[in-house]
């Protein structure tokens, strides 16, 4: 039993654990600053860091549970357990966000108060330290997105890529990215609100900052909850993933066409279900070899593929892949069956481009 637990811990997401501990530490400092100065913005930041730490702790716990191998009682494994745990944490985050909104509202309309001189600098010092930590974690999350999107972009290009390709990242990476993006924005909002109150430009600026951060916290809680609900139900994988899987299938010798293809993401896993067209003269044994080769190639590209189910039918002389709606079917040339995959697939792409233009 102890050995099994040790093996599970070796596969766990320790980056999430480190992030959780860091966020809990920041929450303690921010809460201390809030108690010393009475700043609603600092209270919102403390709740924010605590929520982030709880979410990361849930990701760590979920990664430990998901590492368990399937057994006769649970043949599909425990991948969705991570989504379920984070979903409960998202509900908890939403409750905390509502309380933060209420506190910010009260600070604006019931008892607005400016921070003291010592309190101002104490708040700014804590926020500056938090910005360094959250900014570093955010950049690491962007690098993870670039790596999972198979890109070597850096600097400004990496930031742009992160917003364009975040949906290709794992659920854990997406969670860290959105949380720390929000954390960075929230720190700027809190610092601005506290400064406006300190300079007596807007006496209610501190409370307004807390209110805005509370709204942002509630928004991220809803988004995290929705992402994990989709993981529990199962949803269609991103187009880039489906295209890469289809192209990999088409590159296998003997595959004439992809008749239909569904790639569903369930928790951290992918399920591939489709129908491929093979030459009518191919034997059953040869067809099984083709299916085995397809499965091996797909699992090399996406190790998180849980199941590959492929049906077989004879080649019907129609080219379907490249138009998921099957609206631009074209007749294959009679000599096309003897061509290589690359030439026939390039012809499909050229036809699709011409139709689109």
UniProtKB/TrEMBL annotation:
BP GO annotations: zinc ion transport
Cation efflux protein cytoplasmic domain boundaries: 239-312
Residues that span the membrane, as ranges: 81-101, 121-139, 181-201, 207-226
Biased composition (Polar residues): 337-357
Any Pfam family the entry gives: Cation_efflux
Renumbered residue ranges of the record's region Disordered: 332-357
Compartment annotation: Membrane
Any one of the GO CC terms: membrane
Keywords from the UniProt entry: Membrane, Transmembrane, Transmembrane helix, Transport
Sequence ranges assigned to domain Cation efflux protein transmembrane in this UniProt record: 19-232
Membrane topology: Multi-pass membrane protein
Subcellular location, principal: membrane
NCBIfam families named in the record: CDF
PANTHER family on file: HUEL-CATION TRANSPORTER, PROTON-COUPLED ZINC ANTIPORTER SLC30A9, MITOCHONDRIAL
UniProt-recorded name of the protein: Cation diffusion facilitator family transporter
UniProt source species: Heliobacterium mobile (Heliobacillus mobilis)
Lineage: Bacteria, Bacillati, Bacillota, Clostridia, Eubacteriales
